[in-house]
Structure formats: structure tokens, C-alpha cells
Design goal:
Length: about 675
């Protein structure tokens, strides 16, 4: 009780000291009540439906505090204005009315119907399913939201609609504005001779790209030339997006709002229009391309760097490799450009070894990939392996990112650090780490918590020790969950997971807006004119938020395809591993498909009553002693696959050999209904 009272006292003091007008994000519950989250505040602000003032779920709003409840435990307010909308596009069905057409949005949050005037219907009629953009909502004048039809969706497949709704729910517009597309189309494809003369010319130096087999936007390339003795020069060449993307233009504004490309299993929603991402800036073979580069003179045996150069360049890629092609050459030591690839890989191995020796954590997570037919239907599921070809590219990208961050980190403007987007990763939170440490100890793995460095050493030792052991999967999963989330910020606290004191994102400007910001800052510094951007901190927050939105969309789309794939297996049994535990049940990931579903605690009532033991990550039977712990191997039946909710439901059948001991228990009955 003491801690609760202290929290209430703190909240009451905080409420009394706050200004009357605040800025935050509106979250609307299914019941229709809203809450505004304000950064740095312990309390949310309650917003009644009548006080939304045209704001929708996810909008950034200005809210006025009009009441503080007794004890200061809850503030109530009214939204004064919408600062920025999270989404402006909605999918739904058109219905006819006396004044025209209305869109009935397919959205699980409260929103009025959108009026579509005849001039904005673009050929759509009542009964059509359409994508509509909100263009106006003047509530003060007694108006209602007005929209325009962007695309007809009547004949599109359910999966197509579902994926588009997932992107919209995450706050990503499906279409570029007409103005942005026009600006992109006006960009000339030819490279002027004056621009060539301003750049370091790499066109006669061996250069390649290495990308996934289905990639179309090649935003990085490697060049290599052999120097005297055992020295080589490696160039990390990155598409010069900032040359084409004019700061403050309509196209730049569109790219900034997205801040990232979104990669779903069956599509990519690009940050930039296709003409830029797949044509102008893509480092396609046998074409002259403008790049921004980090060039290193390195010892081919030790990886020692004796010289670094940063600047604008011009390249001409000799060959486009896939990861699979490079991997085969590395393994067989035969094939086109074998000497160059082996030399690049030899140095990459040294860089990787040095990185782990200097404090990087060697986490490796499995990446699930869907095998899709031409319509996007999931046919199977595979696990992507990170092999040497992937690690080769990864090490050179990390090297370039770190080199740029170190260079810009030394720049001062009026004796203050240059504000630019660092990519940071905080030290582990001790409170989050302690339960994991206690859990790992039960498997015989000790931890030294005396310093961040000792924690890193302990993590790496654990990851090495658990290889091939039954607890490997659960400890790797839990270890990752204890880590802080990486983010963009102007405050350089280093990158704990990589073991870098300075780090930023420089190598993917086609798909990440922070890289564009870094390119612009670096170019101004190289010209001797560093720019002070007072809004850089807000830009970093925005890019971090959009990154989280993209990850949410990716998770939701993966879940949708998992559910769709598992629909064919209703009633069938599979081996699985418990991947998470909560008071209401536990999640199981199937061994064969890596598809996660919930075994509800309610379905286990026929056996026993279970309580959640958080410290042991388990459900424990109060009478039988039956235990369901993370990492346990179990047998389940697929009992439901709900596409609308993107939810799989499993039923426990029996433990497998590796499951903990249990007392006698009856097999659960199938749930009714």
C-alpha cells in the first residue's frame, strides 16, 4: 500500500504543477472513451467522446486540462486542436444518401461516416469498396468529415484489403500525393558533367552489389582495389538520395512523414516513389550512379584501418550478386570475381571478431519467411539463415555507419555538439534484467552485474554455452526481451548491443529517412558549413515512432499469413514450444511452421486451476503441480484460426519428453462452441 500511496501523492503533485494546455497522443478505446498520453507524465488525460473536437485515434493533439479528480489520480480534458493526424486514409463501403455518397469506414475505432461530394467520387458508386482520403473536417462550422475516393477496391482479394488496412492502422498512407509524384517525375535521369567533376570517380574501380534475390532497390555497393603489400582499399558506396530529394520539397515531406519503407511478406510500401527507389537511386549494374561513400584503406589480414575518407562519389557497378550466389562462391572458392569476394570476406571476418572482442553481444534470432504463390497465398514457411555472405555486407555497413558517426561526433557549432540522428541503444535496465538472471541461474548460467561490460561478457558466455541445449531457444528469446529498444536521438549514449561508442544510420537512405538526415548533415560539414537544425530532436522522435509503426505492421501481416496458412490444419496435432506465458494462458510456437497460437487457461480448467508465476515464466497448477514454462516442448491441436482477429487458438494435448515432470492429470475436454 505504501508504494501505491507514494505514487498517488506523486501524481497529485504532478497534476497540480502542470500547465493548462499540453501536447500528447490520443488513444481511443473500444468503448469510445479517449486518453491522451503526454511524454514524461505518469497519468493519462481522460477525454470524453464529446470533447474529441475532430481528433481520431493516434492523432497528435493539443489538450486543455479542465478538471482534476479528487486525489489527483485522474485528469480530464478537452482536445483544442489536432496538431498532426496519424492517418488520413480509410477503407470502407460507399452508401448512397440524399446529399451524395458516404463512406462507412472499416475501422475498429470510433469515426463518423465520411461525406464524398460528387466532385470527389472519381467514378465510384454506392456499394463499391474504396480507399478514401480525408481532406477536410471543419467541425466548428457544423460540418462533417469530407473525403475523396483514391482507389476502387471492389474486386480486390480479402488478403489485399487486409494488408492495406494493416498499413493504414499503423499510420502509413498507401499512396503518394499527386504533387510528390509529379516532383519525382520531373527529376532528370542524366548526370551533368559539372556534377561528375565535383565527385571522386570510382567508375573504373571494381564494384559490386550483394542483395536478396528479389530486391529492386540496391542502396549499397562495395568497391575493392588492391594496394601495395597486404593493403586494400574498400569503398562502401551508398545511393546519394539527398542529391535528388530536395529538403523542404513536397516529395521530401512525403518521405519524412513515412520515415521508413515498410516490408510485409507479400509487398513493400516504399518511403520513396518507385522512380527514385528502383531507378534513379538504385545502384543497378552497368549504370553510372551518384553515391555518398566511406572509403577505407585496410590491412587484408588484420582488418586494421590506416585511412578513412568520406565524400560524394560516382560509381559503375560491375556485377549484381545475390546472397546465395556469393555464399556458394565463398564455400566452393570458385566462381566469378572469386579473389575479390574472398578478400572482402577475409577482412569482414576480422571486423566481426574485433566487434565481439570489443563488447558487441552475439544475439542471433531466427527470421521466418513465407513461400507465396503469385497471388500472395502462403504455401509454406522457411527460416532465413544468416550466413557469411550476409555477415560480409553487415560488417561493412556497420563500419561505414560507425565511421560517419565518429566523424560527425567531433563537430562543434558554437562549442556545442552538432545535433544529428545518432542510432543509440541503452544499457540494460537492471530491474528488467534481474528476473532473467534468476531464471538463467536455474539452468546453471551465472551473471556478473557489476558493470555494463561484465553484463555483455555474461550474455556472450551464456549464448555460447546454450548452443544446442534444450534451454537455448527460451534463454535467447528472454535475453532479447530484456534489452532496451534502439532509437534515434541527438543525445549520444552509444550503442550497447553493438559495443560502439558512436553509431548512426548512413547506409540505407532509400528506405530510412534518418539516413537522409545524416547524409545532409555530413555533406554540409564536408563543405565546411555545418548546419544547426533546432528541430532535429523532434525529427528523431518522429523517425523512431514511425519505425515502431512499421514493426507493428510487419508483425500484424506476419500474423495474418500465419493464421491463413494454419487454417488448413484445423483439428490436427503438432509439436510446439512454449514461447510466452501470461495469467490467461500460454503461447506455443509450432516446431514445423513457427506459427504462434494461444492455449487459453480456460481450456485447462478441467485439469486444474493455474496461477501465473512471473519469476519462473510459468503457469503452475495449484493442486496437480503441473507446470507450463517457457521453453517447454508440448503437443497441441489447432482449434481455431480467426483471420479477422489475426489469432490462432491451440489446445494442449500432452507434454513431450523434454517437458518438466507433472503429477497425474486428465486430458482436457474440447472447449464447447
Amino acid at each position: 500500500m505504501g508504494r501505491k500511496n507514494n505514487k498517488r501523492v506523486k501524481q497529485a503533485k504532478q497534476a497540480r504543477s502542470l500547465p493548462n494546455v499540453l501536447k500528447g497522443t490520443l488513444e481511443i478505446t473500444r468503448s469510445g472513451v479517449g486518453y491522451v498520453r503526454v511524454t514524461g507524465m505518469d497519468m493519462d488525460i481522460l477525454i470524453r467522446p464529446g470533447d474529441f473536437n475532430t481528433a481520431l485515434h493516434g492523432d497528435l493533439v493539443e489538450v486543455g486540462v479542465k478538471q482534476i479528480r479528487a486525489g489527483g489520480r485522474r485528469m480530464q480534458g478537452t482536445i483544442r486542436r489536432v496538431i498532426k493526424r496519424r492517418r488520413t486514409e480509410f477503407i470502407g463501403e460507399l452508401e448512397g444518401g440524399k446529399r451524395g455518397l458516404f463512406l462507412i469506414p472499416e475501422y475498429d475505432k470510433p469515426i463518423p461516416d465520411l461525406f464524398i461530394p460528387s466532385s470527389k467520387q472519381n467514378g465510384a458508386v454506392a456499394g463499391d469498396r474504396v480507399l478514401v482520403r480525408l481532406i477536410e473536417w471543419e467541425k466548428e462550422a457544423g460540418g462533417r468529415p469530407t473525403g475523396e475516393v483514391i482507389t476502387l477496391l471492389t474486386h480486390e482479394e480479402p488478403q489485399e484489403i487486409a494488408m492495406k488496412n494493416i498499413l493504414l492502422d499503423a499510420g502509413f498512407p498507401l499512396e503518394f500525393t499527386d504533387e510528390a509524384l509529379e516532383e519525382a517525375a520531373r527529376i532528370p535521369e542524366t548526370i551533368e558533367e559539372e556534377e561528375v567533376l565535383r565527385r571522386r570517380d570510382f567508375r573504373k574501380i571494381f564494384t559490386i552489389t550483394i542483395d536478396p534475390v528479389n530486391a529492386r532497390d540496391f542502396d549499397d555497393a562495395l568497391s575493392l582495389q588492391f594496394l601495395e603489400g597486404n593493403w586494400i582499399e574498400v569503398g562502401v558506396h551508398i545511393a546519394d538520395v539527398s542529391h535528388y530529394l530536395i529538403a523542404g520539397g513536397v516529395l521530401d515531406d512525403d518521405a519524412y512523414e513515412r520515415a521508413t519503407s515498410v516490408y510485409l511478406p507479400d509487398r513493400v510500401l516504399p518511403m520513396l516513389p518507385e522512380h527514385i527507389s528502383n531507378v534513379l537511386c538504385s545502384l543497378r549494374p552497368k549504370e553510372d550512379k551518384l553515391t555518398f561513400s566511406a572509403v577505407f584503406e585496410m590491412h587484408r589480414e588484420t582488418g586494421q584501418i590506416r585511412k578513412t575518407w568520406l565524400g560524394k562519389t560516382l560509381i559503375h557497378s560491375d556485377h549484381r550478386f545475390t546472397y546465395e550466389e556469393v555464399q556458394q562462391i565463398l564455400e566452393t572458392r570458385e566462381g566469378i570475381y572469386v579473389d575479390q569476394l574472398l578478400s572482402l570476406n577475409q577482412v569482414a571476418r576480422q571486423l566481426r571478431a574485433q566487434r565481439f572482442a570489443n563488447g558487441a553481444i552475439n544475439f542471433s534470432s531466427q527470421e521466418v519467411r513465407f513461400q507465396l504463390d503469385e497471388k500472395g497465398t502462403p504455401l509454406g514457411i522457411t527460416i532465413k539463415e544468416s550466413k557469411e555472405a550476409h555477415q560480409l555486407i553487415e560488417e561493412y555497413m556497420l563500419l561505414a555507419n560507425r565511421a560517419v558517426a565518429e566523424y560527425l561526433g567531433k563537430v562543434r557549432i558554437q562549442e556545442n555538439p552538432l545535433p544529428f540522428p545518432y542510432r543509440t541503444h541503452d544499457d540494460p535496465d537492471r530491474d528488467k534484467l534481474l528476473p532473467f538472471v534468476a531464471f538463467a541461474k536455474k539452468f546453471g548460467h551465472g551473471f556478473d552485474l557489476s558493470s555494463p561490460e561484465s553484463i555483455t561478457d555474461s550474455f556472450n558466455q551464456l549464448l555460447q554455452d546454450v548452443q544446442g541445449r534444450p534451454e537455448q531457444h527460451v534463454l535467447e528469446q528472454l535475453g532479447i526481451r530484456t534489452m532496451a529498444k534502439a532509437k534515434y536521438t541527438i543525445e549520444n549514449i552509444g550503442h550497447y548491443g553493438l559495443g560502439f561508442e558512436h553509431y548512426c544510420h548512413f547506409t540505407s537512405p532509400i528506405r530510412r529517412y534518418p539516413d537522409v538526415l545524416v547524409h545532409r548533415q555530413l555533406f554540409e560539414v564536408l563543405k565546411g558549413k555545418p548546419q544547426l537544425d533546432n528541430k532535429m530532436a523532434d525529427k528523431c522522435l518522429h523517425c523512431s515512432e514511425r519505425e515502431r509503426g512499421a514493426m507493428e505492421a510487419e508483425r500484424s501481416s506476419n500474423k495474418y499469413l500465419q493464421v491463413r496458412y494454419m487454417q488448413q490444419f484445423l483439428g490436427q496435432e503438432f509439436d510446439g514450444v512454449i514461447s510466452g506465458v501470461a495469467s490467461f494462458g500460454f503461447w506455443v510456437e509450432t516446431v514445423d511452421h513457427k506459427c504462434e497460437g494461444l492455449v487459453s487457461a480456460q481450456s485447462l480448467y478441467a485439469i486444474d486451476d493455474f496461477r501465473h508465476v512471473e519469476s519462473d515464466y510459468c503457469l503452475l497448477g495449484t493442486r496437480s503441480g503441473l507446470r507450463f514454462s517457457m521453453g517447454d516442448k508440448v503437443r497441441i491441436t489447432v482449434i481455431a484460426a480467426n483471420l479477422a482477429k489475426r489469432q490462432l487458438d491451440y489446445e494442449w494435448v500432452s507434454p513431450l519428453s523434454a517437458a518438466p515432470k507433472k503429477t497425474k492429470a486428465r486430458k482436457p475436454k474440447s472447449p464447447k462452441g
